[in-house]
Design goal:
single chain, eight-stranded mixed β-sheet, 6 helices, 18% helix
Amino acid sequence: MKPQALKGQHHVSAITNNGKLNYQFYTRVLGLRLVKKTVNQDDTSVYHLFYADEKGNPGTDLTFFEFPTAGPTQFGTNSISTTSLRVPNDKSIQYWKQRFEQLGVDHDDISLDTGRSVIAFRDEEGQRLALVSDEHNVGVAGGKPWEKSPVPIEHAIVGLGPVTLTVSRSELTARVLTEVMGYREKIGFPSNHSGQSPIRIFETGEGGTGAEIHLVERKDLPRERQGSGSVHHVAFRVENEDELNKWVSHITESGLPNSGFVERYYFRSLYFREPNGILFELATDGPGFMGDEEFEHLGEKLALPPFLEGRRASIEAGLEPLETK
């Protein structure tokens, strides 16, 4: 049976080499809530930090693996080159420009992309980010900001916006997006680089800022070498476990090598690489982050899924303490 359409972005997972600075930036500068402090389940010596709205609603998570020895990213093609975050309206973009100037955050001027007000910026490790206005958005709803955020609710980040993929052969990625993953291609917009093809836009589900992929073709760049400041993978929303199992069959039948069903406790997943080598994940909307912590105390302590709890002592011994209260 054919699976239902994907619902949009679920989360984006990036790389940092300094969890303490990372925590400071994403909570105190961007005002996101750390909803889960856990470990990379494939390498438990590494923190996995989840920043999101008030409780980590799907579509609001920006996550980081802390690899202390990671060198700087060598930016290039076949990469997730920009992660955008949604804010309520155009006034919010103006608020953030002023905030970035006051706090010394590296940022560009406000621009207009696909009719939306946008401001690009970088964190202290060069992570490529942007804020996008939801003023005229019609589509996937955003999340609910945490009331204890240092950013006023009326301007706070409400979730993930369009994710930009930069690839050397766009037709290969476009074919997977449309023929395998069920995305629809929309009218694109001009590239900022002279001589480059227009940026292609693909949307799924209800569409809108929370369900778009922007695809850039660059033949003048080397392949990106991941490190501190790069994105590891992007995940897309699946309704539930039954739907995920349908996607496992569908992706396998399409001929794409994949992980099969993976239990992550906070959600269930499937991983595969599109032809240019970018890692995609499909992840269920639930169960969510409150199965092992109360709402009021999300992210304060090291949380481990049940299948790792028996190793807590050795896992904690291998981690540098990270204060998150």
